[in-house]
Design brief:
By secondary structure, this protein is of the alpha/beta class. 39% of the residues lie in helices and 16% in strands. It contains ten helices and seven strands. It has a five-stranded parallel beta sheet with strand order 1-7-6-2-3. The protein has a two-stranded antiparallel ribbon with strand order 4-5. The longest helix has 13 residues. Bound molecules: zinc ion.
Length: 233
C-alpha cells in the first residue's frame, strides 16, 4: 500500500523492544537482534506463587499467561508507561494476540476488561495506557471490550513503589464492577505486566463476586517473585 510506504517515511518503523530503526517496508515489529535474544515466560510459570506463598491470599483468577519476561521488555514498557509511547499498546496487543491465538483464551472469552488507571496518573500521563492495550486486543480478537467494566475507588499509590506485602494492602477493596452484567461470563483481564498479581487478583475478585464464571488474565510481560528475582517492577 502506498499509504504504508509514506507512513514508513513519516514515522520510521522501530523495533518495539529496543526502539532502534528496523528498516523501511520490512513490516517487522521486533528487530532481528531482539528476536534472537527474546526471553519468553516459561510455560510452567507459577503466576499464583507470590499471592499464595508470600501474601497468603486466595487466588481468584482461573488462569492466565504472559508473553515476555519483564527484564527483556523493561525499556519498552517504560517508554509505553512513562514516556508517551502510547502506540506501543497496539503493537503489544498484536503480539499478544499472535502469541496466545490457539491457546483457548480468546475462543471461550465473552469480554475483555482492563485494569482501571489511577485518576491522578491519568491526568499527568494524559492517556489510559492499560485501556488502550486492552481495547486493541479486544478489537483484534473480535471480543467485546468493556471499557468501564472495573472501576477504581481509591487513588492507590504506584505498586512499584511498594514492597510485596504493601502491594496487596494498597489495592485491597480498591475496585468494583461497573455497569455491566458479568454473571456467567468468561472474562479476560488484559494488562501490560503481571508482577505480584495483587492488582489482577483484586480485579478478578470483584468480577467473581459479581458472578463471572471464569476470569483469566493475559499480559505482555511478567516479573517479580515468581521469577526468583527481587526486581521491583
Ligand atoms: Zn530490537
Amino acid at each position: 500500500m502506498v499509504i504504508d510506504y509514506i507512513m514508513d517515511f513519516v514515522f520510521p518503523p522501530r523495533c518495539i523492544i529496543c526502539g532502534k530503526l528496523t528498516g523501511y517496508c520490512l513490516n517487522i515489529k521486533i528487530c532481528h537482534k531482539c528476536a534472537e535474544n527474546a526471553e519468553y515466560v516459561e510455560d510452567d510459570w507459577d503466576y499464583a506463587y507470590t499471592l499464595k506463598n508470600k501474601l497468603g491470599q486466595k487466588v481468584y483468577f482461573d488462569g492466565g499467561k504472559a508473553v515476555f519476561k519483564y527484564k527483556f521488555v523493561k525499556k519498552s514498557i517504560e517508554r509505553f508507561k512513562y514516556f508517551g509511547a502510547r502506540s506501543l499498546g497496539k503493537e503489544y496487543a498484536e503480539i499478544m494476540y499472535e502469541y496466545f491465538a490457539g491457546s483457548g483464551f480468546f475462543e471461550k472469552a465473552d469480554c475483555i476488561v482492563s485494569v482501571p488507571v489511577n485518576k491522578h496518573r491519568l491526568k499527568t500521563r494524559g492517556y489510559d495506557q492499560a485501556g488502550y492495550l486492552a481495547g486493541n486486543l479486544a478489537n483484534i480478537a473480535n471480543i467485546e471490550f468493556v471499557s468501564d467494566g472495573i472501576l477504581r475507588h481509591k487513588n492507590t499509590v504506584p505498586q512499584n513503589s511498594l514492597g510485596v506485602n504493601e502491594r496487596f494492602e494498597n489495592v485491597k477493596n480498591a475496585f468494583s464492577v461497573g455497569n455491566y452484567n458479568f454473571k456467567g461470563k468468561n472474562v479476560i483481564i488484559a494488562d501490560d505486566i503481571f508482577t505480584t498479581g495483587a492488582t489482577i487478583n483484586e480485579c478478578a475478585k470483584v468480577l467473581k463476586i459479581s458472578g463471572a464464571e471464569n476470569v483469566c488474565f493475559l499480559t505482555f510481560a511478567a516479573a517479580g517473585e515468581s521469577l526468583g528475582s527481587d526486581e521491583n517492577v
